[in-house]
Amino acid sequence: MQIDTVLVPIDGTQAAMDAVEYGIAIADKYDACVHALYLLGENAATAIGNGSVEANAIAERGEQIMAGVRAVAGDVPIDHSSACGFSVSRLSQHPGSVILEVAEMLDVGFIVIPREPVTGDSEAVIERAAEYVLAHASQPVLSV
User: Fold this and answer.
1) Sheet containing 33-40: which strands, arranged edge to edge?
2) What one-character DSSP code corresponds to residue 90?
3) CA distances from 22 to 38, 42, 51, 62 (A)
4) What is the reported pTM?
5) Residue 118's pLDDT band (boundaries 50, 70, 90)?
6) Which neighbouring-strand residues pair with 80?
7) Which domains, from first to last, does the chain contain?
8) In 10-87, where does DSSP find H-type helix?
9) Is 111 helix (H, G, I), strand (E, B) or coil?
10) What's the angle, vertex CA 18, arms to CA 12 and CA 22, rounded to 5?
């Protein structure tokens, strides 16, 4: 199997950080890089849209999370991006669809996604996306 990039969606939860460790192990085995996709939740997207929170504050939170990813990466190359997991103007946009769009756009060879329990925590953006990604991804998916 040829894998150049492993996509790992993250949202700041411990389950997502656990998935990062699996993604790093897979990338290490296949001499690939990890792309960490930081998904913003509905509250963050709305707050940015209506101006009640500075985009810099959201970016700073993303950088804090990425520092945690880099801390466990070792020699595995890491890159990252951010995306809103929800949209009020595009109802079909949800965390699962965003993950798959990014996977196709980056031509990733493997996806590692946390299977988070549904907690209602506004920061746990990925908690319902695993089922969607497992059902619709064209790449191999590991749900942890």
Assistant:
1) 78-84, 33-40, 5-10, 110-113, 141-143
2) -
3) 16, 26, 36, 20
4) 0.86
5) low
6) 36
7) 5-143 (3.40.50.620)
8) 14-29, 42-50, 55-73
9) strand
10) 130
Helix/strand/coil for 2:
coil
Confidence of residue 73 (pLDDT cuts 50, 70, 90): very high
Compute the distance between CA of residue 5 and CA of residue 30 in angstroms, rounded to an integer: 9
**What are 143's two structure tokens?**
């749900």
C-alpha closest to that of 22 among 38, 6, 5: 6
Query: Using CB atoms within 10 A of its CB, is residue 71 exposed (0-12), middle (13-18) or buried (19+)?
Result: exposed
Q: Cα 71 from chain centroid?
A: 17
What would you measure as the largest C-alpha separation in the chain, in angstroms? Answer: 46
Inter-CA distances, 13 with 19, 31, 35, 109, Å: 10, 26, 17, 24
